[in-house]
Specification:
Protein name: Methyltransferase domain-containing protein
GO molecular function, one term: methyltransferase activity
Distance between the termini: 32 Å
Radius of gyration: 18 Å
Strand order of the largest sheet: 1-2-6-5
Keywords: Methyltransferase, Transferase
Low-confidence stretches: none
Strand content: 15-25%
Helix content: 25-40%
Structural class: alpha+beta
Mean pLDDT: 94
Length: about 180
């Protein structure tokens, strides 16, 4: 991922490149590189599933937030792990998914998912309580990787956006987008 980020950054205009710094390190050790309260927004998207114990990482990221700053987390929804195998007709896989937060992702890696109630408690405990949350990939999680965009892409995006903010649909989304705000 670091190599991909460097390649992408190299293609950007100089004005962008000079404002960017790629740092490789452990998210729990953010204080090594930044002072507390250094950022108005901290994004952690598609990372927590690779971390065995997410709370220290989330706390480290929250320390970097200025008062009123936003911590944005995008995580695999541990409350909906049975949806993908169930929709694919894998009944044994769906049944097993109800009782776990472990799964194998599309890269073939064994990873873990997070439950909304657990991350809500974590965010409250680190002083960045949950302000809003959304479901992501409610209807499109089973779409093939690299699939061509449908002709009615705008309608599909409108459906996903609405489902992602509407109960009960957001609760069964493949991913959760959580927004915590530093008090």
């Amino acid at each position: 991922m670091i190599a991909a980020a460097r390649e992408a950054l190299a293609r950007e205009p100089e004005g962008i490149r000079e404002r960017m710094r790629i740092i490789e390190g452990d998210g729990r050790d953010t204080g090594v590189h930044f002072l507390p309260g250094s950022f108005d927004v901290v994004l952690c998207h598609g990372v927590l599933m690779y971390v065995e114990e997410p709370d220290p990482l989330v706390a480290g990221l929250a320390r970097m937030l200025a008062p009123g700053g936003l911590l944005s987390l995008l995580v695999r929804n541990g409350d909906a792990l049975a949806m993908r195998p169930g929709l694919a007709g894998d009944w044994a896989g769906a049944l097993a998914a109800f009782d776990t937060t472990a799964y194998t992702n599309r890269l073939g890696l064994d990873v873990r998912a997070d439950r909304l109630k657990d991350l809500t408690a974590t965010l409250a405990g680190i002083g960045a309580p949950l302000r809003a949350w959304y479901g992501v990939r409610v209807f499109t999680d089973t779409a093939a990787d690299g699939a061509e965009a449908p002709e009615d892409l705008q309608t599909l995006l409108a459906v996903e956006e609405r489902a992602g903010r509407t109960d009960p649909y957001r609760g069964v989304a493949a991913l959760l987008h959580l927004c915590g705000v530093r008090g």
